[in-house]
Amino acid sequence: MYDVVIIGAGVVGLAVARAIGEASQKSVLIIEKEESFGRGISSRNSEVIHSGIYYTPGSLKAEYCSRGRDLLYDYCDAHNIWTNRCGKIVVGREHQSDDLEAMFHNAQENNVPEIKIIDKKEIQKLEPQVIGDVGLFVGCTGIISAHDLMASFYKKSQDCDHDYLFKSRIIGAETTNDGYELSIGNPNGEIEKVSTQWVINAAGLGSDLAAEMLTADYPSLRFSKGCYYKLSSKWRGAFDHLVYPLPDKEHGSLGIHLSFDETQMPKLGPSAHWVDDHHENYDVEESLLDQFFEEGARYIDGLKKEDLSPDFAGIRPKIWMDENPMPDFYISHEADKGFPGWVNLIGIESPGLTSAIAIGNDVARWVNEG
User: Fold this and answer.
1) CA pair distance 136, 90, nearest whole angstrom
2) Fewer CB atoms < 10 Å away: N or C end of the chain?
3) How much is the mean pLDDT over the chain?
């Protein structure tokens, strides 16, 4: 019998484990389908610390991004985890100035600090290789080593004597007098039973399926696959800021943007393509080269097609609503639905990495207040 079972050892599941471990002595089991932690969507993204400029004021994404951003910077400072508070520029053409102005006002409503509208001259001063007539400068955006962050959470969780089951999947769940009995498929093909008072569903791409083991009355996910292309080594160190176009509202993405890592190697991505049937495929389609070149050349001066080569791909678990391709997180303790002790974290896509500590702290509080 465990006090808490966490489904998923991505950044959010690990953040929950860390927060529970720091606040209590509860017994915790973390179940992960991959062979180690952080192998899924948590390690297949731009590693951006988001500011909160995009999200609807009052939404969970806006709240958790703003709170999580500051917690994340503080945590990384305290634990020697690499970050670069480089800032970013959202660039547009003259005819997009109204859209940028609307984004600026949305950011103000979300109390995002260090923001200002800049003109072509200021863009050129900040980024000589970037093309744009008007831009939104966001100083509090940054980048992080997602792996180092997750490794820190994992170590803290292990220090609290939490147990981990890798290469294992939840295949069933039933309510009991004391909580829940979970059926787990282990690496040997056997089925194990585990009892627990609390279940934290942080299963990422499979979070809707885990929730449906109790009832179908939860949001379903649609996968949005995104590919990345890297720039050639001649572009290393060419940019000091992240550079974004205006969001791609049709696909619910922030558009093919420019980011870089700790080595200053830049990359473009992600693209956005709907994937049906919960199909996980991380191949990078070479046929996307023309699209990446066309979109990158809109704001990168001197970019050539031969500068681009396939890098990696990720998948976002998006809560699917026909009328809203940019939906909110679903974060809920399901006591009101008759499932006390079951917490669903569904559709935790971007800004999930930025929000992880804030989400983890809230879930730990629910568990500890019990």
Assistant:
1) 5
2) N
3) 95
The tens digit of pLDDT for each residue in 30-82 reads 999 999 999 999 999 999 999 999 999 999 999 999 999 999 999 999 999 99
Q: How far out from the chain centre does Cα 55 lie? A: 14
Helix (H, G, I), strand (E, B) or coil at 87: coil
Domain 2-44+147-220+326-369 fold is: FAD/NAD(P)-binding domain (3.50.50)
Q: Indicate if the pLDDT at residue 322 is higher than 80.
A: no
- Whether pLDDT at 252 is above 70: no
Using CB atoms within 10 Å of the CB of residue 68, give its burial: 0 to 12 exposed, 13 to 18 middle, 19+ buried: buried
Q: Are 119 and 132 in contact (CB under 8 A)?
A: no
pTM for this entry: 0.96
The full length of the chain comes to 370
**From 1.25.40.10, 3.30.9.10, 1.10.150.80, 3.30.420.140, which CATH number describes the 84-139+221-319 domain?**
3.30.9.10
Name the amino acid, one letter, at 44.
R
Q: What single-letter amino acid sits at 95?
A: H
